[in-house]
Amino acid sequence: MLKKKTVEDVDFAGKKALVRADFNVPLDSNGNITDDIRIRSTLPTINHVLDAGGSVILMSHLGRPKGKVIPEMSLIPVAKRLGRLLHQDVRLAPDCIGDETEHLAGELQPGEVLLLENLRFHAGEESNDPEFSRRLALLGDVYIDDAFANAHRQHASMIGVPELLKPAVAGFLVKNELNYFHKSLEDPVRPLAAIFGGAKISDKIKAIMRLLEKVDKIIIGGGMAYTFLESMGYCVGRSLVEKEMLELARDIMDRARELGIPFYLPVDAVAAKARGELVEARTYPVQEIPEDCMALDIGPATIALFRSALSGVRTIVWNGPMGVFELSQFSKGTFSMVDIVAQSPALTILGGGDTDVAVHATGNSEKIDYISTGGGAFLKLLETGELPGLNALDDQ
Ligand code: AMP
């Protein structure tokens, strides 16, 4: 899967590149973009095509309009921001397919950029409708996938179009993601440690299972840790526990033992009677979490344990926060882990929407080697080692 053609394998002179980007940016109530990292991440690919004498037609979804035109989910703010970042006009087509869009695409000159309106204004995008794909594919001469965060979805612009429009290649963002995936999991410098956190085991169970066969140690924090602890017979009070996952949690720990892989769980937790900013919270050893409390962060002894587990590690892959870091009372565990990982000389790769929010909040993002742009896609890649959107691209 890693041996896909990329933008570096194509001559773009006089060509129109149809680029699937992920411009699903957060907007405030006035429709202003609050974080444009997703737009900036695609600039290297856009500039590469323009510098090589080509033109660029960008397509993306925004929000979940479910096949209807919802004006608040228009890509107008994206066209404006992109224009500012590129220092040139970016025209927004009134639709992503249709006669007028075909006309605008047909008139595009080398060096120019056209943005198509929200793909999900058409139901055909999510249903991977062949006719919708055909109309999109008509617009360009080359297909580029730069939407890693969407590569786990079998949508028309991810799968249908690259089947019709050749060459179909990876952009720099996708190439970068795959390179780091390879460096961290396919050919890592060892020891390799995986850190998992976040709310539920059920979302990540397959990824944990697969990684068990690849890593040298595994560290578990966040809500999911309490299902593991309960499966070992601890009483974890009202902490998040997925009863239907207890057996699997036990199986995972048995498998780790068979493989001789150290499996680190919290030894203490910050717990409270409710989840809130103003509730009274205290630290307890995990054996002593009161029945009426829920564990919402890892405690100081756990931070120290995880710190020592990570010393000497040469590669770290991390998905999911250590606690409810959105509330300052329960953010210390996650933020301390960010510091530990940022200071580690290991190659550090982070994936999963919430984990990167936590890292950005600490201002430490520069010290992490790579922060994946895909939450669901990153997990899917961990789980299966492949992604539908990438399978559709041309092999080298
Ligand atoms: P995920 O999307 O699975 O990575 O989960 C992220 C969410 O997990 C964040 O919103 C956290 O607030 C939440 N979370 C982390 N630790 C806990 C915990 N101990 N109990 C409940 N929720 C948690």
| CATH 4th-level superfamily of the largest domain | Phosphoglycerate kinase, N-terminal domain
Question: What kind of assembly state do the chains in view correspond to?
Answer: single chain
Question: What structural category do the secondary elements indicate?
Answer: alpha/beta
CATH class of the largest domain: Alpha Beta
What general outline do the C-alpha atoms trace?
A: elongated
- N-to-C span: 10 Å
Q: If classified by CATH, what would the architecture of the largest domain be?
A: 3-Layer(aba) Sandwich
* Radius of gyration using CA atoms only: 23 Å
Give a structural overview.
With 396 residues, this protein is of the alpha/beta class. It has helices at 37-40, 43-51, 76-86, 99-107, 123-126, 130-137, 156-164, 172-186, 205-212, 225-231, 246-259, 300-310, 332-343, 353-362, 375-384, 388-391; strands at residues 16-20, 55-59, 90-92, 113-115, 142-145, 168-170, 192-196, 217-220, 263-264, 268-272, 281-285, 294-298, 315-319, 347-350, 370-371. It is built from 16 helices and 15 strands. The strands form three sheets. A six-stranded parallel beta sheet has the order 3-4-2-1-5-6, sandwiched between helices. A six-stranded parallel beta sheet has the order 9-8-7-13-14-15, with helices on both faces. The protein has a three-stranded antiparallel beta sheet with strand order 11-10-12. Helix 14 links the parallel strand 14 and strand 15. Bound molecules: adenosine monophosphate. Adenosine monophosphate is lined by residues 198-200, 203, 222-223, 240, 295-296, 320-321, 323-324, 326, 352, 354.
